[in-house]
Every structure is written in C-alpha cells, then in structure tokens.
C-alpha cells in the first residue's frame, strides 16, 4: 500500500498560504511602523519649531532688557533735561533703594492678626518649619509678610558670612543634587522633593539660580529655599541667577506677584529682597572638580578675581558701573564727544560699585551660553555674556584644575543636555516652561568619582493626557500667536522693508525676499520658509501676499485718533517703559505725574531714536489722564494697548508647521 503524499493532500499548499499571509502581515506592520515613525518625526519637528519660536522671542526680550542699561547710562548723562522740580527722579532711578534701617524698622509696626490661619514660623528655624511651609503652600496659603521679612533678614545675615563660591564635598555614600531654573514653578519643586527627598545633612542640594519670575509661585519657592537654607546652611547651596535681580523682576513678573500678594507690605519686601539678592553666592565648587554656575564662562573668566570681588555691589545687570571723578565724571558717547554727568551721592550708590572689569566678569558668569563653535564671541541672542566654545571650556577648566562645568540658564526639551565632550552639562528644572507639554524638567545627582545621574520628570495636568498631536497643536498655536504679536509690533517697519523689495508694487514677494525681510526686521533667526504657511498666504506660483500677515491681528488703540506708529512704538517698548515708570513710582502707588510721564518719554524717545512728534504723545497722555488730576496710572495705560486676534485660526485641529 502506498503511503499518501502530504503535499498531494493539500497540506503543502496550506502551509504556503500561511507563509504568504504572514509575509503580507509583516509588510503591513512595517508600513504602519514606518508611517508612525514618519508621523512622530513630523510632530517632533513641529514641536521643535515651536520651541525655537518661544526661545527666540524670550532671548530677544532679554536682549531688549539688557539694552536698558545703555538707556540708564544715557539718563545719567542727560538727566539735567529732567524738570528741576523733580530733583528726586534721578536719585530714584540710580540711587540705591536699600535703606540703612534695621530689622525693627521693618517689622516693628507689623502685627499678625489672630484671624491669620497660615503657617507660623518659629525662630530659630528647624526642619519642622520646612514641612510646615511646604504643607501650607500645597494648600495655597500665603505666608504672612512679617514672617517673609523675618526670613529675608535672617537669610541676609547668614549669606553675608558666605564666600563668593561655596565649597562642598561628596562621597560614594553622600551624593549631591543639582537643580536648575525653577522660575516660580512650585509643582516642580514639590515633585523634586517627593522623588528625591527634602534637603538635609545627608541629602545636600545646589539650586543653581533663577528661582523666581515667569511662574506664579516665585515667593513660595523663595521662602521654601531660604527656610531650608537657614536650617541647613552648609548643605543647601543657593547660587545667584540672572533673574535674582530686582530690575529683571520688574519685567518678568516677580515684582508684580509680590505687590499683588502683599498689598500692605510689598514695598518693604522688595527693598530687603533687593539686598538679599546681592549677597547670594555666584557659584558652588563640588569636590574641587565641578564648577556650578548659572550661565557660563568666557575666555577672560578669572576665578581668582571672582573669588575676591565684593559681590554685594552687583545690584543689577541693568546698572553698569558709572565712572566717577570727584563729583563729576566725563564719559565718551558713541560719537566720541564728551558729555558730563553729575555724580549723585546717595546711600549705597556709585561709590559702592564694582569696577567695569568685575562687573563684566559677573555678567559672563550669569548670562553666557555654550555653543559648538570654537572660540568666544558675543551672545547676540541674549545681548549679554558670551557664547563659549569647547576650546574655551577646556582652557578655563584646565587653568583651575577643574573637570566639569554644570550650568543652567537654557530650557532644554529633555530637561538637560551634555556638550563640549562631556565637560559641560546644562540642567533645567522647570517643566512645561513655555507651554503645557513643551519640555521636561530634570535634576542631577553626583558624587565623587562617579558618573552624574539624570532624573527627568514632567508635571502632568489634564492636557498631558491628550494625544500627542493635540498637545503639539496647542504648543504650536501659542508659539505662532506670540510670533504674530511680534510681527504686529513692527508692522510699519515690516511693510517698509517689504515695499523696498516689491519694486513692481504688486503686493507680492518671493519666499526668499519675504524671509529675508522678516529676519532682518524682527531679528529672530527662525525657519521662516517652514513657518510661512502659517503666517501668510501664498499664490499658486509660490509668491507671498505680504500684507496677509496682518489681516487677522491688530493692536487695540486706547484712543482712536492716535496714529498707528505711536501705538506700535508704545506696544513694542511696553516692557521697557513699564520698568522705567515702576522705578519712578517709588511708593508703588501706581500713579506718576504727567510731567514725569512726558519727561521720561522724551528721554526714552531720544535714546531709542523714535521718530514721533511730541505733540502726539502729549495728546495721548492727556486723553489717558481720565480724571484730569495731572497724574496717570501707567499700568492701566499699558493695559489699553493689547493685540486683538480677529479671526484666531490657531486653535483649528489642522494647524501645522511641517
């Protein structure tokens, strides 16, 4: 009997069919996988573009902020133009606001009512007070102004005993944790303490500056850090960042937060806080190997000099040293002609300032950024400090027998970044910095002889549970919105640049011409070609209707008759003007006289070469003096200038950049 052939019975055919089906399924899976990889890559590209927009605008704002230092120097040279009936104006601008008062002058008249149900601190402070404060802040309670001032005075007293660079040592059994910028994001600090433990003798920390500004809980972060420092002064290290600066706070939110939360005693808090900032150390050195500073270094960084300077003389990055010679100083302006500035002797003023060399050394430490290009060159994005390359890092580290530089100062998508052949680490601890879902936060743990370990996190809110494409759309929409507001603030300049290129008066430009004009006028190094589809309309030939970029957005005019060029100018410089006027408003009443208002505008206009007739501004000022009492609420004045997005198409789900 013959044995049946399995192939003849169809078994072979069945096996082949299965193989073909498996092969098809595998191919389909590969197609889906490749599609998903491409889709994810496109989403990541869109997210990266959005982050580039956020960062470019942030740095451009910082550049504008730093340029105020030139204006203040200009003010000193020209202050005789200010009406004589306001002799205190320049003193308020340039004299120290720090008063020679003791603790009792600040605290003596402040009473804590029985009705106060917030945390009550017990001095001298213990770890119990850290717990008490954290739990209270989790419940959104406000620490009473009396305790805030007590903490500030105690912190100042201990900081005064600290060197410019604090030294600390680790061991295999005792790691140290380094945190970067927190920027008022209290939830990030809570998460770090939850994951990593509270500060203690066995769990030391370095907080590397920029505790405040931008976020809404800067005061709470500052109080937790200062109280922890007072309990563990040898195990919690606080470095000064570029935002531990009373004039930066005026622009980026902390001053406003203090005056909102402490309406009665906010001015006292601001005065003593300004002094506390000046006593913060400017760096930490771990195991004599790792330099921890907020920004970076330059080719001329001199750590020996930085160890010796009187750091408390560094009031603000916006107050550069003014050369003095007796009661008069002669200074060359940009044209090379001499101008004379009278010296104003006020408590804690020019006689107590750093030299120009010392001041520049501190600016480099607080403001510089690493880049891949060799050498040291001006930080054109921020306008302060420098960009330093891997060769500069090696040179400075070798010169001072150091192995690594840890810095912060820059938001990174993953919360940290390693560069310069592993010798420079950036750590940034504020997650969702620009927008919900925009970036992760991180902290570092390190000890002697071991590789640094990185811990990442992201505070999760309801929006983070949405699909990735929705989160990218939201980030992207916010970024484009900011960019359009930037465009409308320079509308007149942009149109002039477009029309210079548009020789046929067609209202159209090539993509290259449009991109060149955008970058040239806005000063933002962005992928304009990729962004164009989101900002302007393009015809079938690829030419851009350059006026279409302004169709769905305009600046609201507080007074209809006022010319658009003036409105644009005030809107563009609104942050700078707000700082200047907040300084003039020394009693924080929110009101300044019309004469001060006009005088400051004329000096500002002159320095910034703003070509607007004074009569226009005078008319606007008169109309904004609503109750005709000769004074103006400048904060309300600025609120009258806001951007209206008429057709706001940015929330559509099909918003794309790539």
Please sum up the structure shown.
This protein has three domains: 121-315 and 365-463, 4-Layer Sandwich (Purple Acid Phosphatase, chain A, domain 2), CATH 3.60.21; 466-554 and 647-651, Recoverin, domain 1; 557-641, Recoverin, domain 1, CATH 1.10.238. Helix content is 45%, strand content 12%.
Which key phrases capture this entry?
658 residues; alpha/beta; Purple Acid Phosphatase, chain A, domain 2; Recoverin, domain 1; 3 domains; 6-stranded mixed sheet; 5-stranded mixed sheet; 45% helix; 12% strand; globular; disordered C terminus
Walk me through this protein's architecture.
The chain is of the alpha/beta class. It has 3 domains: 121-315 and 365-463, Purple Acid Phosphatase, chain A, domain 2 (4-Layer Sandwich), CATH 3.60.21; 466-554 and 647-651, Recoverin, domain 1 (Orthogonal Bundle), CATH 1.10.238; 557-641, Recoverin, domain 1. Helices cover 45% and strands 12% of the residues. The chain is built from 22 helices and 23 strands. The strands form 7 sheets. It has a 6-stranded mixed sheet with strand order 1-5-6-12-14-13. A hairpin with a 4-residue loop joins strand 13 and strand 14. Helix 5 packs parallel to helix 10, helix 9 crosses helix 10 and helix 20 runs antiparallel to helix 21 (614-624). The longest helix is centred in the first third of the chain and has 68 residues, at 11-78. The N and C termini lie far apart (72 Å). The model is unreliable at 6-10, 80-87, 325-350 and 647-658 (pLDDT under 50).
- The CATH H-level superfamily of the largest domain is Metallo-dependent phosphatases
Query: What characteristic shape results from the CA principal axes?
Result: globular
Look up the CATH topology of the largest domain: Purple Acid Phosphatase, chain A, domain 2
Q: Show unreliable segments.
A: 6-10, 80-87, 325-350, 647-658
Strand arrangement across the biggest beta sheet: 1-5-6-12-14-13
Strand content: 5-15%
Q: Count the beta strands.
A: 23
Calculate Rg over CA atoms. Answer: 29 Å
Number of helices: 22
| Percentage of residues in helical conformation | 40-55%
Mean pLDDT: 81
Q: Based on the structure given, which CATH architecture of the largest domain is correct?
A: 4-Layer Sandwich
The main β sheet shows up as: 6 strands, mixed
Q: How far apart lie the N and C ends? A: 72 Å
Main structural class: alpha/beta
* Count of individual domains: 3
For this structure, what is the CATH class of the largest domain? Alpha Beta
């Amino acid at each position: 009997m013959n044995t049946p052939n399995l192939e003849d019975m169809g078994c072979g055919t069945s096996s082949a069919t299965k193989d073909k089906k498996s092969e098809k399924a595998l191919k389909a899976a590969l197609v889906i996988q490749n599609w998903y990889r491409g889709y994810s890559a496109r989403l990541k590209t869109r997210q990266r573009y959005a982050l580039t927009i956020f960062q470019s605008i942030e740095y451009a704002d910082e550049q504008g902020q730093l340029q105020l230092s030139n204006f203040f120097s200009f003010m000193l040279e020209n202050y005789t133009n200010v009406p004589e009936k306001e002799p205190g104006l320049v003193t308020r601008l340039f004299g120290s606001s720090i008063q020679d008062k003791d603790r009792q002058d600040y605290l003596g008249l402040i009473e804590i009512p029985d009705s106060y149900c917030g945390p009550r601190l017990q001095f001298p402070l213990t770890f119990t007070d850290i717990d008490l404060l954290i739990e209270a802040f989790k419940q959104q309670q406000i620490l009473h102004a009396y305790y805030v001032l007590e903490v500030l005075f105690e912190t100042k007293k201990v900081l005064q005993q600290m060197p410019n660079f604090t030294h600390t040592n680790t061991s295999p059994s005792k790691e140290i944790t380094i945190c970067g910028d927190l920027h008022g994001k209290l939830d990030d600090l809570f998460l770090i303490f939850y994951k990593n433990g509270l500060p203690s003798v066995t769990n030391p920390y370095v907080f590397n500056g920029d505790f405040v500004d931008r976020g809404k809980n800067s005061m709470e972060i500052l109080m937790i850090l200062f109280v922890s420092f007072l309990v563990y002064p040898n195990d919690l290290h606080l470095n000064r960042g570029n935002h531990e600066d009373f004039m930066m706070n005026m622009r980026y939110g902390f001053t406003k937060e203090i005056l909102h939360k402490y309406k009665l005693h906010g001015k006292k808090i601001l005065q003593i806080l300004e002094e506390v900032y000046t006593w913060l150390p400017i760096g930490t050195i771990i195991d004599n190997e790792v330099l921890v500073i907020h920004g970076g270094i330059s080719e001329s960084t001199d750590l020996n000099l930085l160890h010796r300077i009187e750091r408390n003389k560094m009031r603000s990055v916006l107050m550069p040293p003014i050369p003095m010679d007796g009661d008069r100083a002669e200074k060359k302006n940009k044209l090379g002609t001499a101008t004379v500035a009278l010296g104003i002797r006020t408590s804690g003023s020019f006689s107590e300032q750093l030299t120009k060399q010392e001041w520049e050394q501190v600016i480099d430490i607080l403001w510089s950024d690493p880049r891949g290009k060799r050498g040291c060159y001006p930080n054109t994005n921020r306008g302060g400090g420098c960009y330093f390359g891997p060769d500069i890092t090696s040179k400075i580290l070798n010169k001072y027998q150091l192995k690594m530089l840890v810095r912060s100062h820059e938001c990174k998508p993953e919360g940290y970044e390693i560069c310069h052949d592993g010798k420079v680490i950036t750590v940034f601890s504020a997650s969702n910095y620009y927008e919900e879902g925009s970036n992760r936060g991180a902290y570092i743990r390190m000890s002697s002889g071991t590789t640094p370990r990185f811990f990442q996190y992201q505070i999760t809110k309801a929006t983070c549970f949405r699909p990735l494409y929705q989160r990218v759309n939201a980030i992207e929409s916010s970024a484009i919105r900011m960019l359009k507001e930037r465009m409308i603030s320079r509308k007149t300049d942009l149109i002039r640049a477009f029309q210079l290129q548009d020789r046929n008066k067609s209202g159209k430009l090539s993509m290259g011409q449009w991109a060149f004009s955008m970058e040239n006028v806005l000063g933002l190094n962005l992928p304009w070609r990729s962004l164009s589809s989101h900002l302007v309309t393009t015809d079938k030939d690829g030419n851009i209707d350059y006026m279409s970029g302004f169709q769905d957005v305009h600046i609201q005019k507080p007074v209809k008759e006022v010319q658009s060029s003036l409105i644009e100018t005030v809107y563009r410089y609104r942050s700078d003007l707000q700082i200047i006027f907040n300084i003039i408003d020394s009693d924080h009443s929110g009101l300044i006289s019309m004469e001060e208002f006009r005088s400051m505008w004329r000096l500002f206009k002159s320095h910034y070469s703003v070509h607007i007739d004074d009569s226009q501004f005078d008319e606007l000022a008169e109309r904004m003096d609503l109750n005709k009492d000769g004074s103006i609420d400048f904060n309300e004045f600025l609120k009258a200038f806001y951007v209206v997005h008429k057709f706001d198409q940015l929330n559509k789900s099909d918003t794309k950049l790539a």
